[in-house]
Write a structure and sequence with these properties.
This protein is about 30% helix and about 25% strand. With about 425 residues, it is α+β, with helices and mostly antiparallel strands. The longest helix is centred in the middle third of the chain and has 18 residues.
Length: about 425
């Protein structure tokens, strides 16, 4: 039986999908997680269940000290663990990307520098160290610009600024977000780059010995012009002309080669306009959230099963089916406390809808980007054409009514007597 170390984030959307894929393939999973290192021992958890994914060197030492037996592969469920997975694969002599390559593409500043060095089309950018006044950069900027945290994903910590005043506000906001989300925030600083107009697309791919296969190219039908950049709809196949689709594939492949990525899943974000294909992101991971489920019909298996098959060198051939498919990452309309929803049965009756998965829990505080790092849930459809898939997603969403109530600070009445009150 093949044996795989799986890095399972405690807040991961896809943990169960990977575990189900492993069960289908008869793969033994050795679980590692990032539970609180102070609480995990009292719960009886082994040290590998309390790893610091964001301290890969330290976490790798713990795994190598505690692991029993041999492994056939190391995989991370999501972005938080991919650098640790690469480092462990290196140290164990297992297939995988080099940790330096994964680290390079995770860091938006390092990735931008790589693209510029290799003469790949990317936005002009500037590094703003922590504590620096953004006004010093104003003479060198061409507004609008986008302020970004260095290592966050999913539109978190990304804000457009149209002038110097908006830039100062955006920098303060993103600094606060990054300081809460990344323990290295003080050393990282921010990146400020030109806003690139145009339509945005996402490529889901797989690398094998450096060769990129495009599994899907997604249209993002909703405009992503800011000031925040909440992603909602993904529809495949793309309605772009074949020649443009081929150019996107080639530009992503070039970026992977430049970064030194050679194996495993790839998720890339690009913008397309009259000037060309602009690379926004190339990540050494698969698509986030539960969005990978939208590819099951075309792959003939779950995306997680395909990733596991590649990791253990199992056959990949499968018979998928044609047609169009789409997913909506259900947007969060405002910050507040999620109490529930109405209209779910009505939404599930929409033609073409294959599933509605509500992932927010009652009582959970939810927030849209740039602060939030989650969605209310996911809607999945299949249809004959991309246009029909998009329409079904929009109709389904309109039938859902979410109960999100404001957060109210607790009011504690003073214990001391109030003058004039007995």
């Amino acid at each position: 039986m093949k044996r795989v170390l799986l890095l399972l984030p405690t807040t991961g959307y896809r943990n169960q999908d990977f575990l189900a894929a492993a069960k289908t393939l008869g793969v033994e999973i050795v679980a590692a997680a990032n539970y609180c290192h102070q609480l995990a021992p009292s719960w009886g958890f082994a040290p590998i269940m309390a790893l610091h994914f964001d301290r890969p060197e330290q976490a790798a030492d713990t795994v190598l000290r505690e692991i029993d037996g041999t492994l056939d592969a190391v995989l991370a469920v999501d972005d938080s663990g991919i650098e640790l997975a690469a480092l462990l694969a290196e140290r164990l002599g297992l297939p995988g990307n080099r940790a330096a390559a994964v680290r390079r593409v995770r860091d938006k500043l390092a990735f931008r520098r790589l693209l510029r060095e290799r003469e790949l089309l990317c936005p002009a950018f500037h590094h703003l160290p922590s504590g620096d006044d953004p006004r010093r950069l104003v003479p060198d900027l061409q507004f609008p610009v986008v302020v970004k945290a260095r290592r966050l994903s999913g539109s978190r910590g990304v804000i457009r600024a149209d002038d110097a005043e908006a830039l100062a506000r955006a920098v303060n906001w993103v600094r606060a977000i990054q300081s809460r989300a990344d323990r290295d925030a003080e050393q990282l600083g921010l990146i400020i780059e030109d806003f690139i107009p145009g339509r945005e697309f996402a490529l889901e791919g797989s690398l094998d010995r450096g060769q990129l296969t495009t599994l899907a190219l997604f249209d993002k039908p909703d405009p992503l012009d800011g000031p925040c950049f909440e992603e909602t709809l993904y529809v495949t196949p793309s309605r772009l002309p074949e020649a443009v689709r081929a150019r996107i594939h080639e530009e992503v492949a070039r970026a992977c080669r430049a970064a030194g990525l050679a194996t495993g899943p790839v998720h890339a974000e690009v913008r397309v306009n009259e000037r060309g294909i602009w690379l926004l992101e190339v990540a050494a991971r698969s698509i986030g959230g539960l969005c990978g489920r939208v590819l099951t019909h075309s792959l003939g298996m779950s995306l997680e099963e395909m990733i596991l098959r590649q990791a253990i060198a199992a056959p990949l051939a499968a018979a998928g089916v044609g047609g169009a498919a789409g997913v909506m990452m259900i947007p969060i309309p405002r910050r507040g406390i999620f109490h529930g929803l109405e209209g779910l049965a009505d939404a599930q009756s929409v033609g073409g809808v294959t599933g509605v998965s509500i992932t927010a829990e009652p009582g959970q505080i939810v927030a849209p980007p740039p602060d939030g790092a989650s969605y209310l849930g996911f809607i999945f459809v299949r249809a004959a054409t991309p246009a029909e898939a998009e329409n079904a997603l929009r109709l389904d969403h309109r039938r859902l009514r979410f109960d999100i109530r404001p957060e109210y600070p607790a009011v504690v009445e003073a214990l001391m007597p109030t003058p004039g009150r007995p």
